[in-house]
Design goal:
The chain is of the alpha+beta class. Helices cover 53% and strands 12% of the residues. Helix 3 crosses helix 4 (62-79) and helix 6 packs antiparallel against helix 7. The two termini are 31 Å apart.
Length: 154
């Protein structure tokens, strides 16, 4: 039951937040320079940051933008045959459960242009974080042109 699940999360929110922060702390300690495992924490951030820039940080909170970015990146991975089918729907279902946005109508050209200043970028290429499936991420370096081609599935 959806209400029971939401209440369980609310009743345990302090514990959930502490566990998430502790997991992130451990990853950051193992990869202080953000060159390997820590990059996985950026899942959803490529498009999330692009959405924030596109709307001058007015439309979405950081978490909302990253959530939309997670759905977008999962759809992109699915379309490319790199991500297990249904992953984007699964992520979107969790976001919807908490009344969070799951999509945006911004043009993909604007979003890709907004990735130009992304910290994961180097020249005309950018490292994107994709999922094989939930819980199994990987880094893929692509050109912005390839990112646009992959994004046509969005």
């Amino acid at each position: 039951d959806l209400i029971a699940q939401q209440n369980k999360v609310k009743d345990n929110i302090d514990e959930i937040i502490c566990k998430c922060v502790d997991l992130k702390r451990a990853v950051v300690e193992r990869d202080e320079l953000d060159t390997g495992e820590r990059m996985m924490l950026n899942f959803g951030h490529t498009f999330g940051h692009a959405l924030e820039k596109t709307y001058q940080y007015q439309k979405y909170s950081h978490g909302e933008a990253v959530g939309v970015g997670m759905v977008m990146m999962s759809k992109l991975g699915e379309a490319a045959g790199l991500t297990k089918a249904g992953t984007a729907k699964e992520i979107a279902a969790v976001l919807k459960k908490y009344n969070l946005p799951v999509k945006d109508d911004a043009s993909i050209d604007k979003l890709i242009a907004a990735t130009a200043l992304d910290k994961k970028g180097s020249g005309n290429s950018i490292s994107i974080i994709l999922l094989r499936e939930i819980g199994a991420g990987f880094i893929k370096s692509v050109s912005r042109g390839q990112l646009k081609e992959l994004s046509e599935a969005l």
